[in-house]
UniProtKB/TrEMBL annotation:
Coiled coil: none annotated. The chain crosses the membrane at residues 53-72, 102-126, 146-173, 224-244, 256-273. Keywords: Cell membrane, Membrane, Transmembrane, Transmembrane helix, Transport. Belongs to the binding-protein-dependent transport system permease family. CDD domains: TM_PBP2 (cd06261). This is Proline/glycine betaine ABC transporter permease. Residues 98-277 form the ABC transmembrane type-1 domain. Its main location: membrane. SUPFAM superfamilies: MetI-like.
Length: 296
């Protein structure tokens, strides 16, 4: 009788990915620790300066300025709503925290736009670059928000620095994608017309493609701002000041009333930022239509 040998179970050997990552982090901390500290200090200084700028005038003056901006961009209805909303922020004693959150969102949004728009332009003008950028953007969009805080805290410590860095990383992808999409959707005949008149590639980019793609680019800016606000609130867990820290404190202490008030404050700020950036996008669309009409 033939004996059949026993088949042993085969398992995939464990891949020490976590150990490799820990070694990489250790190497970066040992060799670039001073750089990370300088970046964190610079971000904290910039955020504090911007927050001081937003609170240097009396509260009622700043509320009127926010309302006038809303009136100019959206009309009297939104201007009145902004006036009531920011007055409510002051009534809830959340105005100073809201200005800290706004300064974080503005700084992170500006940095994200500065990075996203050139990357989107590069991806639109080079298929090779696009194929390299897309997987990175896919990764950034699929990573959970809390995961961004882990390397940010490791490299930049507790406070403003990790909050801004994590926010920029989280909000980057939509700006890159929509910038590339907008430039790729520019009518090829418009580009060929510019080439026929002897325009250089740089002139075509700045004079034709970017202006016509501006509505899509501004939609990306809108998404960057809104994602920045959501991430800044979560970054309150790592000591980032503002409404996020207030919400986290109220949550840990089970203060239901305070948590509700801070949540309402976040909603007011989110609606204001969304409508303002959407208005800028709409104005870009009107400008694009006028350019197309002029070209016709």
């Amino acid at each position: 009788m033939r004996v059949v040998p026993a088949v042993t179970d085969w398992e995939v050997p464990r891949i020490p990915l976590g150990e490799w990552f820990s070694e990489l982090v250790g190497w970066l901390q040992d060799n670039l620790g001073d750089f990370f500290t300088a970046v964190s200090d610079g971000l904290e200084s910039a955020v504090m300066s911007l927050a001081d700028l937003l609170t240097w005038a009396p509260t009622w003056v700043m509320i009127l300025l926010f309302a006038l901006l809303a009136l100019w961009l959206r009309g009297w209805k939104f201007g009145l709503a902004a006036l009531i909303g920011f007055a409510l922020l002051d009534g809830l004693n959340s105005y100073d925290s809201a200005m800290q959150t706004l300064s974080l969102v503005l700084l992170a949004g500006i940095v994200a736009v500065i990075i996203a728009v050139p990357l989107g332009i590069l991806g639109a003008r080079s298929d090779t670059a696009s194929r390299m950028i897309k997987p990175v953007m896919d990764f950034l969009q699929t990573v959970p928000q809390f995961i961004y805080l882990i390397p940010a805290v490791i490299f930049f410590g507790i406070g403003v620095g990790p909050g801004v860095v994590a926010t920029v990383m989280f909000a980057l992808a939509p700006g890159v994608r929509l910038t590339e999409l907008g430039i790729r959707q520019v009518d090829r005949e418009m580009v060929e017309a510019g080439e026929a008149f002897g325009s250089s590639p740089a002139r075509i980019l700045t004079g034709i493609q970017i202006p016509l793609a501006m509505p899509s680019i501004m939609a990306g800016v809108n998404q960057i701002i809104m994602l920045s606000l959501s991430m800044v609130v979560i970054a309150g867990m790592v000591g980032t000041p503002g409404l996020g820290a207030d919400v986290f404190e109220a949550t840990t202490r089970l203060q239901l009333g305070a948590g509700f008030e801070y949540g309402v404050s976040v909603v007011i700020l989110a609606i204001y930022l969304d409508r303002i950036t959407a208005s800028l996008s709409a104005k870009s669309a009107v400008s694009r239509a006028r350019r197309l009409a002029g070209a016709a």
